[in-house]
From TrEMBL:
This is Phosphotransferase enzyme family protein. Residues 26-231 form the Aminoglycoside phosphotransferase domain. It comes from Oceanobacillus luteolus. InterPro entries: Aminoglycoside_PTrfase, Kinase-like_dom_sf. It holds the Pfam family APH.
Length: 307
């Protein structure tokens, strides 16, 4: 189904095919009454997600929830669910210490509000089935991209880290780590600073190990953001983010003990495909620098702890 049909289903009188404001999935900005709204794809069980985000909003978390329309919102259109959110005006993240601290605070508050069990029926994280052949396929693609971009990259150390992550993933799965309901895509381009952080994309909400979500924020917080630094957090910035996060959350000893394994597992799950599947990113100087800093950060001597 095309974008015009999606918008018409929500009652927007659109004559021409709209252009998505996001290159990787359909996201449309349109006018509703006196304000702009965002129409985007959301989860399979959209009603459960909306129950979760409504709970966050009731607890004074700044997060988008569906706009009230004459038509059902969210709704099933063709093969997918779509939702209409308000468009949030405000400044974007630039990487200041204040923004980093407040972003950490917001993630900590979101984590602290999770129920003890998956009462909202969110999708459960269950990706523990990587194999060595997949690592080698990804490494072959990354090697090709690096050569074409004429970069220097520590490929052997990266391969060692990923191979080890494959070996220990079963043990990590069996570890009794605290699980939480979380938005599971917490990064700078999903926040508006207004002036406090406002979460504008909660649609990947998942029931997952808490430190997996924290690792995802560490790894990809600056990904796909024009105004953010073209690198991961520095170690000092990471401490600042954690200090904000820990105003709401006290991590367990088990989480601290398994942090390095968790960080590398999420690298294997969420970062490697970015490096392998998008050769055009390796021709983008900003994304090149981000990938280089990610590789350095995941190595054993990198000082990104949960202390």
């Amino acid at each position: 189904m095309n974008g015009k049909d999606v918008l018409n289903k929500f009652g927007f009188d659109i004559k021409e095919e709209p252009v998505s404001i996001y290159p990787y999935s359909p996201v449309y900005r349109v006018k509703h009454e006196e304000r702009d709204v965002i129409v985007k794809r959301t989860q399979e069980h959209a009603e459960r997600l909306m129950e979760y985000t409504s709970m966050l909003k009731r607890n004074v978390v700044k997060v988008v929830t569906p706009v009230k329309l004459d038509e059902e919102n969210p709704q099933r259109i063709g093969e997918y669910n779509f939702v209409v959110y308000p468009f949030i005006e405000g400044t974007t993240y630039t990487g200041s210490d204040r923004e980093i601290f407040e972003a950490g605070q917001l993630l900590g508050k979101i984590h602290s509000l999770s129920p003890d069990s998956n009462t909202y029926g969110l999708p459960e994280y269950d990706v523990y089935d990587f194999n060595q052949d997949e690592v080698e396929e990804s490494m072959a693609a990354i090697t090709k991209h690096i050569r074409e971009a004429q970069l220097t990259f520590d490929l052997e150390s990266l391969r060692d880290v990923l191979q080890e992550a494959v070996i220990v993933q079963g043990e990590l799965q069996q570890t009794d780590l605290p699980h939480i309901a979380t938005t599971y895509d917490y990064k700078a381009n999903n926040l508006i600073m207004t002036p406090e952080p406002y979460l504008i994309d909660p649609d990947n909400a998942t029931w997952a190990p808490r430190i997996f979500d924290l690792a995802l924020a560490l790894l990809l917080f600056h990904n796909e953001h024009h105004d953010a630094p073209d690198r991961v957090f520095t170690t000092q910035e990471w401490k600042t983010f954690l200090s904000g996060y820990q105003t709401y959350v006290e991590l367990t000893e088990a989480e601290k003990r398994h942090w390095e394994r968790a960080k590398r597992h999420i690298f294997l799950d969420e970062v490697i495909w970015l490096m392998a599947e998008y050769p055009e990113d390796w021709q983008n100087p900003a994304q090149q620098k981000l990938f280089l800093s990610l590789n350095q950060m995941i190595l054993p001597n990198a000082d990104y702890r949960l202390e």
